[in-house]
Amino acid sequence: GLVEHKRRNSALSNGGKSPMSVMWLAPQLILMGIAEAFNAVGQIEFYNKQFPEQMLTLAGSLFFVTLAGANYLSTALANITRKVTTRDGHTSWLTDDINLGKLDYYFYFIALIGVLNLFYFLICSHYYQYKSMSLHAEESIKVHTKEEAEAEADANTAPWEVVEQ
């Protein structure tokens, strides 16, 4: 939002072309790329650890379904924003000429949705009950006696191997 506000002001004061470098966008784009990568890994790991074993295939596909749903939601949000902001003869925040629109307001709106999403996540994560992480948590460790270890070694010896005594 802040970078777009600065870009728009510089473009309007310089005849429609901003002298700002596109590299002003690099920090936030890099941060979003890293965040998306960590989110994808964490989400798939969560599904694989928390879904029942019989549903792991569904867990893998759920990631892509949520990604597709997010893309449709993003498109719907942009269309709704266009319709709502053009009421009463105002110029849309998302016009074809970005110097005439208010793209910075849209970015602030997206940031607000992100903050609300963070609070929703914190509430859900507070009440979530994790599945047991260990499959063998209740099994005790058996300690073999010397005789049991020798018997097991004899049982694992192939018939063609000769054991000298």
TrEMBL record:
Top-level taxonomic group: Eukaryota
InterPro entries: MFS_trans_sf (IPR036259), POT_fam (IPR000109)
SUPFAM superfamilies to which the protein is assigned, alphabetical: MFS general substrate transporter
Keywords of this entry: Membrane, Transmembrane, Transmembrane helix
Record keyword NAD present: no
TM ranges: 22-42, 54-73, 105-123
Gene3D superfamilies: MFS general substrate transporter like domains
GO CC terms of this entry: membrane
Any Pfam family: PTR2
Record keyword Transmembrane present: yes
Membrane topology: Multi-pass membrane protein
GO molecular function, one term: transmembrane transporter activity
Localization (cell): Membrane
Family to which this protein belongs: Belongs to the major facilitator superfamily. Proton-dependent oligopeptide transporter (POT/PTR) (TC 2.A.17) family.
Record-linked PANTHER family: OLIGOPEPTIDE TRANSPORTER-RELATED
Protein name in the entry: Low affinity nitrate transporter
Organism: Aegilops tauschii subsp. strangulata (Goatgrass)
